[in-house]
Amino acid sequence: MWKCEIIALAAWAAMLQPGCNREKAVTYAATAQPAPEQAGLFTVSREQLGRLIISTPRRADWSITVHTTGTVDWDAGHTTQVITQVSGPISRILVDTGAMVHGGDALLYVSSPDVSAAIAAYKKARNQRDLARRSLDRDKELLDRGAIAEKDLEAVQAAYNDTATDVQNSLQTLRIFGISKQDLDQAEQQGASINPELPVRSPIAGTVVQKLISPGQLVQAGQTTCFLVSDVSTVWVQGHIFDRDLPSVRVGDLVDEFNASIPQPFHGVVSYIGAMVDAPTRTTPVRIVTPNPRGLLKKDTFVEAVIHTRTKKNILAVPVSAVLRTAENEPFVYVEVQPGQFARRLITTGEQQNGKAEVLSGLKDDEKIVEEGGLFLQFAESNQ
After folding, report:
1. Are strands 331-338 and 324-325 parallel, antiparallel or unpaired?
2. N or C terminus: which one in the chain shows less Cβ crowding within 10 Å?
């Protein structure tokens, strides 16, 4: 007991000597009954107190941010399969994986008897129509001269209408096959040879992301997928939301996405929130539509996503500069317990926004903390 009194007296005497220990930032005075969360009080001189900035934590309404992860997928709204319309062997392949194509570009050619049969059917239907047309014109003249009955003309007119319908049907088949106008003009010529090759064209503009055929392969009409074309300027990020965060997330929320291998961040928008929970992960899927400049985001790329929701919460915030770390990496602040006296206080922190840190526990609204100069106190404490 007497040792403690001597130590306290010596500390008090040292504070009274104006020429001694002025270079020290703070002096430590042991207290008889320290609070459980603090080891002691630091007394700061009036001169040294001017180096500190002291403030009071403030309440603020912050948007809730949700952290999650996701994987990149192609935009299904701008991704399509290229499927051949006819059966037969592949005669030519014009593009490879990674090629940029426009809508209507020929990607490969299939040599198919279906093409020859369709063009032949069109020619026959057209010939029958032309013959019926001539018969109709001739019978009209005969009717005007009274050489035939009106019912005979009506029969010829019906025959002509049937042949015209056959022409339209056969022409529609050629259009479905993707026959170009040049091929149709060639088909109009009597005696011209029929080219059995049919081009398979891209339905949309984009990048060939998958090639699923090889030269000479036999393809089946309506069944064989030849290519996969996608507009990769926009991709989908498939994220996952836990139950605790689900009430805060809404369609239209802005999202920042990061990948450790790509220096620039990406920015997307929540476009869909799933109606079912994924059984293995017990999370709800969300779709984030993300612009993909220069195509840096590839399919199945892993990203970290921060969803900035429009849901608000009232929090206690302190400047980030006020939050220090212990040797065990635990966050703490210095609290002004009495004028000129400070104590270390462990806290629990949450999100950070605009230079402020959210305090979840360990601090009250009316307590004063060291906003600037906490490192000064921490250095002095470490030298005790």
Report:
1. antiparallel
2. N
Domains of the chain: 18-61+314-382 (2.40.420.20), 113-195 (1.10.287)
Distance CA 220, CA 18 (A): 99
Per-residue burial over 107-122, b = 16 or more CB atoms within 10 Å of its CB, e = otherwise: bbbbbbebbeebbebb
- Which helix or strand (DSSP H or E) is residue 72 part of? strand 58-74
- C-alpha distances in Å from residue 308, one per residue of 63, 66, 205, 257, 301: 7, 7, 33, 11, 21
Separation in Å, CA 185 to CA 109, 135, 174, 192:
19, 25, 12, 10
User: What are the pLDDT tens digits along the chain (384 aa)?
Assistant: 333 433 333 343 333 343 333 333 333 333 333 334 444 677 777 777 777 888 888 888 888 889 999 999 999 999 999 998 888 999 999 999 999 999 989 999 998 887 778 888 888 888 899 898 988 888 888 878 777 888 888 888 898 899 999 888 888 887 777 776 676 676 666 555 667 788 899 999 999 999 999 999 999 988 999 999 999 999 999 999 999 899 999 999 999 999 999 999 999 999 999 999 988 888 999 999 999 988 999 999 999 999 999 888 888 889 898 898 888 889 999 888 888 788 888 999 888 888 888 899 988 888 888 888 777 777 766 665
Q: At what angle do helices 113-144 and 181-188 cross, to 10 degrees?
A: 60
Per-residue burial over 278-292, b if 16 or more Cβ lie within 10 Å, else e, is eeeeebbbbbbbbeb
Question: Token pair of 136, please?
Answer: 């109709």
